[in-house]
# Entry
Amino acid sequence: MEMIEGSTTPGTSKIGIVVSRWNSMITDKMLDGALKALKSNGIQDDDITVVRCPGSYEIPLAVQKLIQNREVDGVIALGVVIRGGTPHFEYVCDAVNRGITDLILKHNKPIAFGVLTTDDVKQALERAGEKGNKGGEAALALLEMISVEQKLTH
# Structure
């Protein structure tokens, strides 16, 4: 039986990060967590491209343009969508999720989904540092998927 598993140290990799500015008090913490995780696993500053976009809804287009115009092995998508009193929450969450999924399959590149979908600001803050950092977790997931992808294609 062949067992293929990834590692969070895939070697030299070019990483893209797309992070929304909306709710920046949260996304900035997630970005810090992602950068810390990448650097602690051997990724150098010169191998990281960070792209800021207005909000989570714009993340899929920014990821697509990053993949098309920069040499990256994978991308981390970071954003926050907080439930409000209208259906807007569901529309944005669905669009971002569908957009990222489509891009993974279209470009055959790993994209880590680090977009928080929470009921309130408190939950988002907890996930951005008080009870772990989903940005850091997304970075580790991306590194592992890059490693898996490399093992499956080489």
